[in-house]
């Protein structure tokens, strides 16, 4: 089950956050920002401490009760997907989400890159994609 | 390897790209350039504006390129240029410019545009001789797109068939890798 999605810009700022299920516990909006910034830093550290050379950094975080999958694009944008622990492959849906992002967010001439995403078409298509992926 | 780029480029072009009417595209671009010429009355300025517009396109277009092609990071600048030609240009313009004239340090090369859909039906006024680079938007697109994947480059037309030259050639120079720097806002 896919619980929520975060999008973090290349500077570590949270530009999008959405839950896909009713009744999930919410953090305060300030906490979401802190979380995104902290994750960004940890990701940067993990990509640098690799003893075997090149590493793309933190990829999957497993916790009691949830899993957090991270997909970083070559341009540095991060898509974080929170799922329940039994969820295995998220590659397909993450790729789909990246497609939707490049279509409905980046191709919208009135969206300013790196700024919070408030694009209705993106919301609608994202929700549809996540529900069909379930 | 080169063959693999070509196959992937053709596959994406055939199966994953929506096409529009070519005339609509050519007219749209043509009217933009003509309007800029009217507004600025200075070909140098028009080149600059086209490059800026291309830059703003490039920083967005790169996401479309990456998400559609699924291509990861290239190992060196040579590979980058091949990918741009065989997959990038193929996806967006259905052409695959030749990458050639490499400098000995592998930092400068040329893209030879054997065909260029932007040029169709275009005849430049005589006084533009070697001042107006009609397709200069492409240089900006290259710069914008590569900047988003942490590569700073410079691209310039050095010849163009519309100016009476034998070939259209864009010279691309690699400058440096950008390290986790914040991107500039839109120009």
Automatic annotation (TrEMBL), chain A:
Tree of life domain: Eukaryota
Q: Major location, coarse class?
A: endoplasmic reticulum
The record ties this protein, via CDD domains, to: TRAPPC4_synbindin
Compartments reported by the entry: Endoplasmic reticulum; Golgi apparatus, cis-Golgi network; Golgi apparatus
What InterPro entries does the database record attribute to this sequence?
A: Longin-like_dom_sf (IPR011012), TRAPPC (IPR007233)
What Pfam family is a match, any one? Sybindin
Alphabetical list of Gene3D superfamilies matching this protein: 3.30.450.70
Query: Which GO BP terms sit in this record?
Result: endoplasmic reticulum to Golgi vesicle-mediated transport
Q: Which GO terms describe its cellular component?
A: endoplasmic reticulum; Golgi apparatus; TRAPP complex
**SUPFAM superfamilies membership:** SNARE-like
Keyword hit for rRNA-binding: no
Keyword Transmembrane set for record: no
Q: Which UniProt keywords apply?
A: Endoplasmic reticulum, ER-Golgi transport, Golgi apparatus, Transport
Give the family this protein belongs to, as stated in its UniProt record: Belongs to the TRAPP small subunits family. TRAPPC4 subfamily.
Its quaternary organisation is: Part of the multisubunit transport protein particle (TRAPP) complex.
Q: Can you say what this protein is called?
A: Trafficking protein particle complex subunit
List the source organism: Dimargaris cristalligena
From TrEMBL, chain B:
What keywords appear on the UniProt entry? Endoplasmic reticulum, ER-Golgi transport, Golgi apparatus, Transport
Cellular compartments per GO CC = endoplasmic reticulum; Golgi apparatus; TRAPP complex
Q: Which PANTHER family match?
A: TRAFFICKING PROTEIN PARTICLE COMPLEX SUBUNIT 3
Transferase in keyword set: no
Species of provenance: Dimargaris cristalligena
Q: Which InterPro entries match?
A: Bet3, NO_sig/Golgi_transp_ligand-bd, TRAPP_component
The region annotated as signal peptide is none
Q: Could you tell me what this protein is called?
A: Trafficking protein particle complex subunit BET3
Cellular location(s): Endoplasmic reticulum; Golgi apparatus, cis-Golgi network
- Which protein family is named in the record? Belongs to the TRAPP small subunits family. BET3 subfamily.
GO terms of biological process kind: Golgi vesicle transport; macroautophagy
What domain of life? Eukaryota
């Amino acid at each position: 089950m896919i619980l929520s999605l975060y999008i973090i810009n290349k500077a570590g700022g949270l530009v999008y956050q959405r839950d896909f299920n009713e009744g999930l516990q919410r953090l305060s909006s300030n906490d979401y920002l802190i979380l995104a910034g902290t994750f960004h830093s940890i990701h940067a550290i993990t990509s640098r401490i690799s003893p075997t050379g090149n590493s793309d950094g933190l990829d999957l975080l497993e916790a009691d009760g949830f899993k957090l999958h991270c997909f970083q694009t070559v341009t540095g944008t991060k898509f974080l997907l929170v799922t329940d622990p039994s969820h295995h492959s998220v590659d397909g849906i993450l790729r789909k989400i990246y497609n939707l992002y490049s279509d409905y967010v980046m191709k919208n001439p009135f969206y300013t890159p790196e700024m919070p995403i408030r694009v209705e078409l993106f919301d609608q298509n994202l929700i549809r994609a996540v529900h069909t992926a379930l | 390897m080169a063959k693999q780029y070509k196959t992937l480029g053709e596959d994406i072009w055939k199966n994953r790209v929506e096409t529009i009417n070519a005339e609509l595209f050519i007219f749209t671009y043509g009217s933009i350039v003509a309007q800029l010429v009217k507004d600025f009355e200075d070909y140098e300025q028009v080149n600059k504006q086209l490059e800026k517009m291309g830059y703003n396109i490039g920083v967005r277009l790169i996401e479309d390129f990456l998400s559609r092609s699924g291509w990861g990071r290239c190992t060196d600048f040579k590979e980058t240029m091949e990918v741009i030609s065989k997959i990038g240009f193929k996806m967006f313009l259905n052409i695959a410019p030749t990458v050639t004239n490499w400098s000995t340090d592998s930092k400068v090369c040329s893209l030879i545009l054997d065909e260029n859909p932007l040029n169709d039906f275009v005849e430049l006024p005589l006084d533009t001789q070697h001042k107006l680079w009609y397709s200069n938007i492409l240089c900006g697109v290259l710069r914008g797109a590569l900047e988003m994947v942490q590569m700073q480059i410079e691209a310039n037309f050095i010849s163009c068939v519309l100016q009476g030259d034998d070939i259209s050639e864009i010279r691309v120079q690699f400058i440096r890798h950008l390290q986790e720097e914040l991107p500039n806002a839109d120009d």
